[in-house]
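Whether sequence alone determines local backbone shape is best considered at the level of individual chains. The sequence in question and its structure tokens are set out directly beneath this paragraph.

***
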Amino acid sequence: MSGANIGGTDDDYLYENERYGADFQYTFPSGNGSYDVILHFAETYWGTQAEGGVGSRKFNVDIEDERKLSEYDVFQKAGGALTAVQETFRTQVQDGVLTIRFTQGSVDLASVKAIEVLPAGSSLSINAGGGTYQSLSGKTFFSGYVLCPRRSHSGRRPSS
């Protein structure tokens, strides 16, 4: 969704690409400790490229094998399409690897735009479906293609 004006952010580019699918995950070699995970979402398909709205996409997110979002509806949470929304979760890593898993809920596929992992004093930010990006505030989001080269998507395939 190149060139779209995304509400709730000055960093439209960050929300132009996505990673989506029925079941995918990120694993970050983080070391043990407490982390804040910030997930960036915007509905850029339903209500824009296809008719739909609240209830068109519902998915789940687990962080460190704990359900954090269940039947999550980005459109509903953001109040419409093309609006950025972030969800922040604190998690404890005890095996040295932070795992974030996205699974299909009752409707359509899971989708995420970007991920930030913030341990005390530093951060790791990922542009889930796009290239490396420097935000207007100076934060660098690294390419999701580097971490998961065969599972990143910059387009939208029809859901089944």
